[in-house]
Every structure is written in structure tokens, then in C-alpha cells.
Write a structure and sequence with these properties.
The protein is an alpha/beta fold. It folds into two domains: 2-164, 3-Layer(aba) Sandwich (Rossmann fold); 191-308, 3-Layer(aba) Sandwich (Rossmann fold), CATH 3.40.50.2000. Helix content is 38%, strand content 16%. It is built from eleven helices and twelve strands. The strands form two sheets. A seven-stranded parallel beta sheet has the order 3-2-1-4-5-6-7.
Length: 309
């Protein structure tokens, strides 16, 4: 059997979907059968190199990489991905997100992490792609019972078509340098260390800045906490630099007198840096209003003594 996986969102630079895809491929290939072949569709050569470094060495001879330089959620992927997959001659395709091309009619499995697109974003195109992905899939993976029930509430699909498979993450390890953020002297300090060594203690949030993540309320609560208890504490916010992050920065500057040393934004953190950020935080906070699962708290559990949501 030849299994195809859409790996264009591979790696933590792509947030939760990227982490999920990374863990999926890492672990799926460790329980490999000698009768399986794999085709990984990657966005760039850099992504291919990262993926090659992650997969098990014993399956390399049965892995093929196909360059698919089409951004997700675009017309280009709708037009070009079906033909690209067809030429690869996969027996079954796994799409780790809902963006299955509308004209793709071969057997596939899709992971639906949540339905926030239906709740918050009223774009006709997204709704149509989501409906196609769900209704035409041979099987649907939901990361929780909540996610499964959400699917059944919105779509008229057989319940036995949905498989609840809880998500997981590898334990984050600090591997590239010896020192910690807490100020130990070592010349191999990461950019995270250099930026935060004088800012302890700090609260930590890791994730995107979409509206349903409730970051504005987190900022409100943080300001109240500092003022009410006269605390000298900071807030580290780790997430992709995009429109939604800029909106949060604007919210802070418009409504508060918080200084840049009070709210620290990190656009991207490697696994090494994430491990340090989690480990040295006073508290990890996950204020989201809606999640299909939510991977960051699972990461935090391995490194942080206290988590709150």
C-alpha cells in the first residue's frame, strides 16, 4: 500500500497543525509495515530536509518526496494538488487539515481538528471546502469526543465514520545548550535566553492569536493582577507574527500603559527554546474559548509545574 500525506504544513512554524503533522509522521513511521510505501507532499526543499531528519532511517528507501509549492487555503492548491497526487499514484491520502481539494475524489482520510471556521469565519469558500472534506472522506479523525460531537451536530454523516484519536506530543528536551533562562552563565545562550534572562518571573502563553484564543482577556487579567497585588511579573506570548498578533499589540498600546518589558512577544521558538520557556515560567496559561483539543497544554505538562486554563 502506498500512503500519501499532505506535509505542506509540517513543523512547529505552522503552529498546532504543523506540530500535529510532525508528530503524526514521526510516530506513524515508527510503527511501519514493510509492505507500506510513503509519499510526502512538501511545500519546499527546506521542509523536505527537516522531514528527512525526523523520519525513521529504516523506511527511507520506501519514502518519496513530492514538491508541492502551493500555499494552503488557496486557489492554486485547489487546481494543482489533485493532479500532483494522482501522478504519485497513492492508494490512500491523509490530509491533516480540512483543506482537501474540491475535485479530489480518490480515497482519503482527513483530520478535522475543530470547526472554528464555521463558528467565527463566515467565508463561503471555507465552508464549502470543509463540507466536501467531511462528506467525501472515507474516514475522519477527530482529536476528542467534543470534536466528534461537533461534527455530528453540523453534518449529516455516519457516526461510525468518525474515529476519535487523541493527539500527543513528544516530550520537549533542551539539547542545544547547557544554560537555562534563569541566568546561569554560558556563552551558548539562545535568543530566548538573551531576551528573557532578566525578566523572571513570567507567565507564559504559547499558541496563535486568533480571536477565539481569548488573548485580549488574558491581557486584561494580567493588568489587573499586576495592579491589584503590586506584582513585578511579566507575560511572554509565543506565536506566529501575523495580522492577529498585530491586533493584540494594538489592543495593548490602545488600552494599557504596559511596557514592552511587561509583555514580551516571540514570533517563533524552536523546540529547544520552547522547552526553556515552559520550564522557566512561573505559570502556563491557556485562556482559549474553543478548542478541538489544544496541544500547547500537553507540551506544558511535561515542563511546567503549574498550568491554568
Amino acid at each position: 500500500m502506498k500512503i500519501g500525506i499532505d506535509a505542506r504544513l509540517y513543523g512547529t512554524a505552522h503552529g498546532g497543525i504543523g506540530r500535529y503533522t510532525q508528530e503524526l509522521i514521526r510516530n506513524f513511521t515508527t510503527i511501519d509495515s514493510a509492505t507500506r510505501g510513503y509519499v510526502f507532499f512538501v511545500y519546499s526543499k527546506d521542509d523536505e530536509q527537516q522531514l528527512r531528519a525526523d523520519i525513521s532511517a529504516h523506511i527511507e528507501s520506501r519514502v518519496r518526496f513530492v514538491l508541492a509549492p502551493y500555499r494552503c487555503y488557496t486557489i492554486a492548491e485547489q487546481i494543482f494538488m489533485p493532479a500532483l497526487i494522482a501522478r504519485a499514484k497513492v492508494d490512500v491520502m491523509h490530509f491533516p487539515h480540512f483543506n482537501v481539494p474540491l475535485v479530489y475524489n480518490k480515497p482519503y482520510v482527513v483530520t478535522i481538528h475543530d470547526l472554528k471556521w464555521l463558528y467565527k469565519i463566515k467565508l463561503w469558500g471555507y465552508k464549502k471546502v470543509m463540507r466536501h472534506a467531511v462528506e467525501k472522506a472515507r474516514a475522519i479523525i477527530a482529536p476528542s469526543e467534543f470534536g466528534k460531537q461537533d461534527l455530528l451536530r453540523f453534518y449529516n454523516i455516519p457516526e461510525d465514520k468518525i474515529y476519535v484519536i487523541y493527539e500527543g506530543v513528544s516530550e520537549l528536551q533542551i539539547t542545544n545548550h547547557k544554560s537555562q533562562i534563569n541566568g546561569n552563565t554560558d556563552h551558548q545562550k539562545s535568543k530566548i535566553q538573551l531576551k528573557t534572562k532578566n525578566l523572571l518571573p513570567y507567565l507564559l502563553y504559547v499558541g496563535s492569536f486568533y480571536p477565539h484564543k481569548n488573548i485580549e482577556r488574558l491581557i486584561d487579567a494580567f493588568d489587573i493582577l499586576r495592579a491589584k497585588y503590586n506584582l513585578d511579573i511579566n507575560l511572554a506570548l509565543v506565536g506566529k507574527k501575523d495580522y492577529f498578533q498585530q491586533q493584540i499589540k494594538k489592543y495593548i498600546t490602545t488600552n494599557y500603559k504596559l511596557q514592552t518589558t511587561n509583555c514580551i512577544f516571540y514570533d517563533y521558538a524552536s523546540d529547544d527554546e520552547l522547552a526553556e520557556l515552559y520550564q522557566n515560567s512561573a505559570l502556563y496559561i491557556f485562556p482559549s474559548l474553543y478548542e478541538g483539543f489544544g496541544l500547547p497544554p500537553l507540551e506544558a505538562i511535561t515542563k511546567v509545574s503549574v498550568c491554568r486554563h
